[in-house]
């Protein structure tokens, strides 16, 4: 896939990597480590993602771009990231995956931003699940982690009274179901 205004040799992932690096690497180095780890997880899912592998890896490297201070307008990074990507003419499917990563719809409800998030489509398929899986199995420092340990890490990092802790606690059953579905899909692909 080639974006308008970019040479035809630039892949979607190369473009996405450049955008994420520009927005995160110097101002949020730990976030930059995380998104690189999520992208590595996405790359490991290439056999399952098939023709959508480049899109998955691109969504993985960009999923937290909304944390960048210059584009964090609402303070809700999935929405801020999707709005930014839409403004720079990123492919619609990439924008929608970023908007809805890791059960953003539930957190949008808690933040009273559901109407704004509803402008973006949640595709609810295996690619979306794979993106959630990659995020949920990557530490803040970009290392692979068990999803249950990642949930516990988030709860501990934010503390008991934080909105993110309320969100991750409520979201856990669905997030873990996504991890299970993705692992089953991976096993099926591996089994041939």
UniProtKB/TrEMBL annotation:
The keyword Coiled coil applies. Gene3D superfamilies: Hypothetical protein af1432 (1.10.3210.10). Residues 103-130 form a coiled coil. PROSITE patterns: HD. Residues 31-154 form the HD domain. InterPro entries: HD/PDEase_dom (IPR003607), HD_domain (IPR006674). It comes from the Bacteria. The keyword Coiled coil applies. Keywords: Coiled coil. This is HD domain-containing protein. It comes from Halopolyspora algeriensis.
């Amino acid at each position: 896939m080639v974006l308008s205004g970019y040479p035809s040799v630039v892949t979607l992932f190369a473009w996405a990597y450049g955008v994420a690096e520009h927005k995160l690497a110097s101002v949020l180095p730990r976030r930059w480590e995380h998104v690189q780890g999520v992208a590595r997880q996405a790359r490991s899912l290439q056999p399952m993602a098939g023709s959508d592998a480049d899109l998955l890896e691109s969504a993985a490297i960009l999923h937290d771009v909304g944390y960048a201070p210059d584009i964090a307008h609402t303070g809700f990074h999935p929405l801020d990231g999707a709005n930014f990507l839409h403004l720079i003419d990123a492919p619609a499917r990439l924008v929608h995956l970023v908007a809805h990563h890791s059960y953003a719809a539930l957190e949008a409800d808690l933040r009273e931003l559901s109407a704004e998030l509803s402008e973006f489509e949640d595709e609810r398929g295996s690619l979306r699940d794979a993106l959630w899986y990659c995020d949920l199995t990557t530490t803040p420092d970009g290392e692979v982690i068990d999803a249950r340990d990642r949930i516990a890490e988030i709860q501990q990092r934010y503390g008991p009274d934080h909105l993110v802790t309320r969100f991750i606690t409520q979201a856990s059953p669905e997030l873990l179901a996504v991890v299970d579905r993705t692992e089953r899909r991976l096993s099926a692909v591996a089994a041939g």
